[in-house]
User: Fold these one by one.
Assistant:
Number 1:
Amino acid sequence: MTIGEFAALSGLSAKALRFYDEKGLLAPRDVDPTTGYRRYGAGQVRRAATIKLLRDMGMPLAQVREAVDRPDESDRIVADFRARVAADRERQDRAMRVAETFLPAYENGAPAQRRRAARQAWAGVAMTLDLDRLGSDDGAGVAEANDTADDSFGELYRALAQRGLTPTGPFWSTLGAAGVGPEQILLCWPIPDPGDALADLTDLGGNRVVNGVLDEREEMFARCDVGDDVAESGAALPGVVAFMEAVEDLGVEDREVRQVGVLGPDGVPVAMELTVTL
């Protein structure tokens, strides 16, 4: 068969047949040495038709090659590819839901607010961050950092309670705190005035323990509620965007920003607040 006849039978275009020949996936039965015309055999129709079906599914060439070279494995290969496509579609659907909610909220979301806050003593542990690991594409670095932070918060809570300094409110964390390294995050609990009760607590799990006081102050804050889709997407919350824009407008970019846990009735975090002292 000529390339045109074979294309009509197999469903592949002449251009596609030339491409698959170049890739070594479907070579013609014969090529005229003078004219370069390709000729195909009847027994090649099944392979060509299979290639078309798999490519129409969006299957990459490497997997198509495996499926047509190993027909006894083709069912498994197709099933594996179908599962990956389904997972990708679920991820895209989730991303679309987040985008449909967040994009209007970025434009028209609630602005950051202000309030007066009372004087508050605190104790914290400085946890070193692996910035390269945090930036990993699979998100594993962020998950590991969150687990480590949870463990550190719990360990600090217990150490404080043993000294009669049971925390008096929700935890918070902050980057860029005074006296803390640039690659460290400070994990804090609000506590009663410690006096000398923390004199012997300088290290916890290999991390430095520090304490201080937030004086009575005016704060700017924004609440950020976190849903399941958001937790999976890692997208910037509308409250974060509004807060950061307000930080820039007020010219307080060099101030310490605190991320405060908002706890539900059962003590489980349901949201977070971003705050900065004005």
Note: DSSP finds nine helices and eleven strands in the chain.
Number 2:
Amino acid sequence: MLERLHPGIIALCIQITTLLLIASVIVSQPAIELSLFEWSLLQGLTAGLFSYALRMPVWWMPIHLGFIPLVVVALALNISSTACLVLFLGLLLIYGKTYKTQVPLYLSSNRVTQALQSLLPENSRFSFVDLGSGCGGLLSHLAEKNRNGVFHGIEAAPLPFLISKLRSLFGAKNCAITWGDFWHQDFSQYDVVYAYLSPIPMAALWEKASKEMRPGSLLISNTFVIPGVAADKSIKLDDFSNSTLYLWKI
């Protein structure tokens, strides 16, 4: 049942449930004297435990732990609603529909770029797509170094898309950035598909790749494996996030 619900809905239910639980304790146990901030910390801890018990992704725990305490701090500091709105809009521009896709903004390291470059054909023509191309650093570098390739980036977050688009306009002519949802893109036109997503969509990515990618083409995932499908090759990288590239030959 829970698997069918969006994690955001589950998180909202956890917050509401724990708020009501802490409120009932405050009303029924007036002898317990805690400050508002201390009560908020207790609510955050309870919400974090609920999140763990319901097996939500581990990164939800700090969100639950800090959400209400941060609200209390913001109210205590009398931070203006305008500043909060600006912060929210800024996060929306940077992360886009992360709440829906469950894929945050990850930036590939220079080590990843170097490893990918070593995997690309040196002389023959090929096409490469980056699913969620971020600010376009990886694509712009690969396009400059591999003029025999055609590079395509797909990005849905507004600010990273704008940065990568400007980068492509003033960079190599064999690189193009598209605004949109890569789930609507036909993978059959690419020789190499690169993804740096999250654990959530990997099974669906494999299903799409298996149906659309041509025999002999290459699917590469940074860090995240496909459940139940062993990679044909893995490359461990010594970078800031201890990345591993997983390769599947279609």
Note: The longest strand covers residues 149-155.
Number 3:
Amino acid sequence: MQSRGLKIAVDLDGVLAESMLVWCERVNKEFGMHLTMDDLDSWSSWKKFSISKGDFYRILDECWEDWQEVPPTEPRIAGKVARIEKFGDIDVVTGRSKKTETAAKSWVDRQRIRYRHFVRVEGWRDKIVLDYDVYIDDAPDLMRLISETPLRWAVLYDRPWNRSVPEMPRVLRSASWNDVPKLLAQIQKALS
């Protein structure tokens, strides 16, 4: 892809990969629970279910050990991502742990998602210091940081854990990947 517009950071977990579905299956098996993704209605759901933060992230990492089992968030995800190439350069930007980076990259490649760079950061807060115009992400707390940073925009990909995020400047909501092209067109127009 050649540079011809926006610099777009696309998150992996919860935006491209439905890792939390696999997480629910593993938590249910390990802890004898009956969780579904709709039960994950906050960014720190472990508090609600008496699961330690350590167990939450350990199990999420374990989901990536069997990366072939992680489904995409939507059918034909590669084609849907390809529809936004006309808006600029696409990088996959993730807070995946170092030990799951190879598996995560293999997942993206196996899905045939076209991207320029695969970028791993230590955590979601580190994304805001990267030089992107638009972040397509599901992290509720990242939205506040983006909204407070001039010239940064976000497409908030709808998930149960981010539905309580209030409206804020330069944060547009996407119910599905089908909404993303028109939202990027709005952002491109606002930046021109």
Note: Helices lie at 19-31, 53-63, 77-82, 101-110, 140-147, 180-191.
Number 4:
Amino acid sequence: MNDLAPTGRLRAAINYGNPVLAQQGPDGSPQGVSVALAKALASELGVVLEMLTFDAAGKVFSALETGAWNIAFLAIDPLREEQIAFSEPYVIIEGTYLVATDSAYTSVVDLDKPGLRLAVGQGAAYDLFLTRTLKHAQLERAQTSASAVDLFCQSGLDAAAGVRQPLQKIAEVDSRYRVLQDAFTSIRQAMAVPQGREAGAAYVQQFVERMKAQGFIQAVLADNGQHDVTVAPTRHSSLKL
């Protein structure tokens, strides 16, 4: 399909910044649910898959300007929708905070007060969301989600914002930190196609719905040890197109 693989190669942007969706395997190659979806789509189209890896979602979005990729895996966000056509989400994950165990913070609302400083990964979905919604707290941006946690720990900030699962793994191995039980947003992860490629976007939309309905996404998440991730519900109407 010309919209998705005009040169016979499907160039897929893989974001390591969200380890729920993509990770480096033991041999260094990409793995995870976004990688599995990219491989399945390339196979279905009968084209060669070329994976381009990034360490942050903001860098994936920036690479759109150079036409580096044909498809990507990003969280749906109004700012990104100006340049990207998103499928329906395939997984839904929570954005929350990592805080010091001995801090007084018990809810995400406690972190939006004057004088508080929060670490975020620049250009991540939760950075975009918090930029729009925070009224008092100040965001301190690091280049990646992982370095945002380092910034929080090393600079004595009040919290690090991020995806619940990787933050929870940090808290499980370091008793100095804990993760808040509630969330400031639900992050809807989707497949993305550059705006203006209507046929490609429509194909990807139906592809994602079929993968959800067939149990493909749930199975891949389980195989990768991501048992606590919510697969987005299927829009049955999409399957009838």
Note: Helices lie at 33-45, 57-63, 125-133, 145-155, 164-173, 198-213, 216-223.
